[in-house]
Amino acid sequence: MQRLRAATTLHLATRMNDCHTRFHARPVNEYRMAMFEGVSLNGTEFPHLAVVGQRGPAGDVQWKCTGSLISKRFVLTAASCVSDGNVELLVVKVGDVNSAIKSDDKFAQEFGVSNVTVHPSYNTRYQYNDLALVELDKDVVLSTGVCPACIWSSAHYPFNWYEVAGVDMTAAAASKSDSIKVKLSSVESSKCESDLLKSGSLPYGTRHDQFCASSANSCNQNLGGPIQIPLFTYQHVAPFLVGVKSFRESCDGVYQRIAPHVGWIETVVGESLNQTDCVNKYKQCFDPAQMDDETEAVDPYFSRVYLHWDDPKTDNLCGGTLVDYNTVLTSAHCTFNSRGESPTKVSIVNHQAGIAEIERHPDFKQGSLYNDVALIRLDKYVRIAKWIAPVCLPYVEALEGHDTTPETFSCRVPKDGFNDKLQIYIPSKSRCSSNDTVYDEEYMARFPEGLGKRLSCFGTEYRLVPGLGEIDAGGPLLSRDETIIFGVNAYATDCGSFKPLITTDVASLIPWIEKFVLRKQKK
What we know:
It is a single chain. This protein has 10 helices and 30 strands. The chain has 523 residues and is α+β, with helices and mostly antiparallel strands. Strands 23, 24, 25, 26, 27, 28, 29 and 30 form an 8-stranded antiparallel beta sheet that branches.
């Protein structure tokens, strides 16, 4: 009853810096791994890996290079792998590319080839535009051991490392092959060009659609093999192809970028290679796996609300955060829908309250993301439950004795399927600066004056598939225990991927928030 009385007379309060005492009688100091998925069930780590060979006069197959399944019918490989072969003699094997183990034998599928399409600008004398598409004579049967990879289609490459796989071709015919996986990092082109220029295959050096990669460990990778990055959905890990092995039999060397040639590939394959469409199409055969290193608070207080309009069709999926039992902090742009109308109510779990008053920051200008904050006064106090409580503003007193780092950002991702999205909190990986947004024209257009003093930048590099997660518009940047609000989400092109999250700092807004919360509701 003590907390109930405190809430019902809160409009008589004269300060807000004692919020932990009033709102958070139960401490939140336990954390657990946020288990998004389960353990890997796949019989092979590279279910898209294909081996390309040529059948000899005696019917035996000489396996010569590798490729990647990118649809049920097409394998992407190097043009130098198949440009000199007789299409009728080509053979492609998927599923069981590692003869050294038996666990993947059940996935084995072998196909003839109906057509080979070499990149129109490929010249057999050089190693440029070294791409080819191999059309199988029938569709593969999808399974956890045979599954197409998706293609990284962006011109921006924010990766620090890549994965490659290789097969010992000399042993493959003797059923002793062993597939290996190695991590590579990209290197400056100048470091690998000196040796390559001597070969004559790259007389003009590496071009914009090629890159060099190197491994600390020596290894072999086959011509046409994939260089990739694993990206996550809420429940799975999906391989995304970045390049094709174009030169040398070692893992070190030159790779042909795929992204600049996506248009040509889509024309040949006859289907879209959109990243989210690909993940949705093949999710049933991707590995279940969890995102790395994230933790979540155990039994945290719940403070996030949804904003609603009279016409549900106009809802723009905005959220906000309770800073008092009758006050919500959100983004100012969340207080308009596409018709310029303001929300009329909020919901928190199964509780609803009408909106009595909206006050946007006095320096906010519609269409701008600077000073993009607003306060909403509800027409009643939200029903009190032990798991619903407002957050604290970042007073010095509020910070003492609380887990404040890493800050936790609010993101919306699809838990299952790709329509209904779940709001989750994930720890930020790092802080960033204006320099981290310079490469992105959209960020520069949104923040032409830079970040300034009221905006902060946070890394959200959880390797989610770009475009899958989205910013929780109007949502909070919280302390690790989710009891203190440091910021309000302002902008991110997506959430949980490689683009930074920009938030509006709350600390500098405390006087404005106090003035609104502590004055009596307007009549």
